[in-house]
Amino acid sequence: MHPQASIRRLLKSTTVADIHAALGQVDAQTAASLLDGIAVDDAGALVLSRFLTSGDTARPYRTYAAVHLLHRAGDALADVRATLRRLSLRFASQEPAALDLSPLSAFPALAVLSLTNAAGVTSLPELPALTALDLRDATGLNIAEALTRPLRSLTLARVPLDDAAMAALGAQMGLQQLTLRGCAGVADLAMIAALRGLKVLRLEDCPDLNDASAMPTLTGLSELRLSGLSDAVKAVNVEGLHGLVTLSAPGLRVEGMLNAPDLSTLRCHQVQQENSLTKSLQLRTVSIHLWRSGDLRVFQKNSALETLSLHEAHGLIDLSALSGLSALSTVHIGDAKALVELSPLAELEGLE
Known about the structure:
Elements (H helix, E strand, L loop, with lengths): L2 H9 L4 H8 L4 H7 L4 E2 L5 E2 L11 H14 L5 H6 L2 E5 L21 E5 L15 E5 L6 H4 L6 E5 L5 H8 L6 E5 L18 E5 L18 E5 L7 E3 L8 E10 L9 E7 L13 E6 L16 E6 L17 E4 L19
Parallel strand pairs: 3-4, 4-5, 5-6, 6-7, 7-8, 8-9, 9-11, 10-11, 11-12, 12-13, 13-14, 14-15
Antiparallel strand pairs: 1-2
Helix pairs in contact: 1-2, 2-4
């Protein structure tokens, strides 16, 4: 068998050990040859259209192998290494074998890194240009150590967060987007209350989170998504969050004055101060489980409203405020036993 054919066979293996064995046989010339046709697209991501394509049964390992080959390729592919800005290493299932990410240090412009199912990753190299980090099921990584670099965007999914990790998270003063999903150990938001630069906060399936009282301090938020939290969390206080564009908190009561003029999407269990919705004139999608008011006048100036869903509207008796909302295409009103007059809906030509 031709040496390069043997290397290709090992690179297509479904074990990290075989891939490392293949890499041990590769010099700079062979690495460049194996990566023939590799490029970086306009978004700064690798294009691997011709790398290990024939009979490739291990696509999740393909990018990992390419990263190592790029590191070994020398001057021949220096332009690729210099322009790579986005990289996603995704494995088919939790990979327990040791994964060596030291070659990433050869990519000086790498700004966005995503790791999925990489339990074998125990450390990250110095990445001076990194601004966005996405870690999913990277259970072998020291999160506190990984967060010593300043970031603008961070996603942590199904990784354990101890006190040291939360302290490191709270020190990310330049953070603008934060997603915590399925992260055990997060009991409150005290550590991130000082992150005043946050624009996007997503907390999903964090069953230990039992205190969300720090929310009003995050006054720069434009997107807030909360779901799957502890049963102890019944409400979210949005007082002072004037820049909200998206508020998605199904199952939670919205407390405080909802003074968000640019609010476009609202999903929640209940709005405590329903009249405050008169200040939100850009609403497009509204889904509220419990509606107490007898009419819908708070929405009558929302000319862009497309979807309105009120699941339990026991006291609702008047739909006339909807008659002038020409963009409205979907209306769901549930348990409105006092409602007898539906004629205003007949004026909505776009209603499905």
